[in-house]
Amino acid sequence: MSSIEQLNIAFIGLGVMGYPMAGYLAKAGHSVTVYNRTAKRAGQWQSEYGGATATTPAQAADGADFVFCCVGNDDDLRSVTVAENGAFGAVKPGAIFIDHTTTSAKVARELHEVAQRMGFSFVDAPVSGGQAGAENGQLTVMIGGDEDAVERAAPLIDCYARMQARLGDSGSGQLAKMVNQICIAGLVQGLAEALHFADRAGLDAQAVVEVISKGAAQSWQMDNRAATMINGEFDFGFAVDWMRKDLGYVLNEARNNGASLPVTALVDEFYSEIQAMDGGRWDTSSLIARLGE
Fold first, then answer.
1. What does the CA dihedral 32, 37, 38, 44 come to, rounded to 10 degrees?
2. Residue ranges of the domains in the chain?
3. What's the pLDDT band for 5 if we cut at 50, 70, 90?
4. Nearest to 113 by CA among 101, 97, 129
């Protein structure tokens, strides 16, 4: 990334995704200031990557050419952007705010309009690839926003992405992420049922997976989660609580646009059963747990 000029960058939110993503920007040679709600986490990041820490989102964003954000949900995003001491009060004219949070399309459009009035750009850019993708710099990024802003942000996003694409105007990135989550929900449920069936039929489920994963049934979920699902291990990825948050956005959007999502709605209900089993922090492959031993 040596061809990229050194830029002043802010990164807000150092969770399991944001922490390594901000690290890749620092390793690319940029001057990165980070903010995290838990200051200790920001201090750990600074010890590992250098840069600077800020005590508020506004302080982090002050003077930055690009401001990145990766927090939890709509409310979290509003709290670090337009609330008191939020970043929007300090973003300089002409800068670009890139939001990697998975949110509703509604809040993305709202913040895009606010940013326009304040003289800077807002890009919604949710990611897929999980913690491993963030740590390995191999994320897929779905982007919505003005073409010029997206084009300017692209070299920076490339620091931690293997694929990025603009899908349309503001909110389009979030809508594309909803498509992604619909696919995952159905695939994981199908895999859970298949493994459950194999067990009840007296088959060696792992041996079956080794065969069918070389054919049309193959998927990322099968390759990366089948073995741990068979072993009843659910600490390897995106948590059920977060998936239900995302599916809530999906189902609400479907109510607005008239899309029929019967399988997605059913899987969302199944995830609520996992939460009732105290599995809210298990990864999404835990759907198999509700099918029994």
1. -10
2. 8-169, 176-291
3. confident
4. 97
Strand boundaries in the chain, DSSP class E: 8-12, 31-35, 52-53, 66-69, 96-99, 121-124, 127-128, 139-144, 161-168
pTM for the structure as a whole: 0.95
For tokens 């802010």, the residue is 10
Who's near 233: CB < 8 A, 6+ residues apart? none
Q: What is the pLDDT of residue 293?
A: 52
**176-291 CATH, one of 3.30.450.20, 1.10.287.90, 3.40.1370.10, 1.10.1040.10:** 1.10.1040.10
- CATH number listed for the domain at residues 8-169: 3.40.50.720
Alpha-carbon gap, residue 254 to 105, rounded angstroms: 12
Quick check: is 177 catalytic? yes
Q: Which residues pair with 139 in a beta bridge?
A: 161
Question: Which pLDDT value is given to residue 237?
Answer: 82
Neighbours of 51 (CB within 10 A): 20
8-169 and 176-291 in the same fold:
no
Which tens digit of pLDDT belongs to each residue from 121-136? 999 999 999 999 999 9
For 219, the 3-state DSSP assignment is coil
Annotated active-site residue in 27, 40, 106, 177: 177
Rounding to the nearest 10 degrees, give the CA dihedral for residues 104, 111, 75, 282: 40
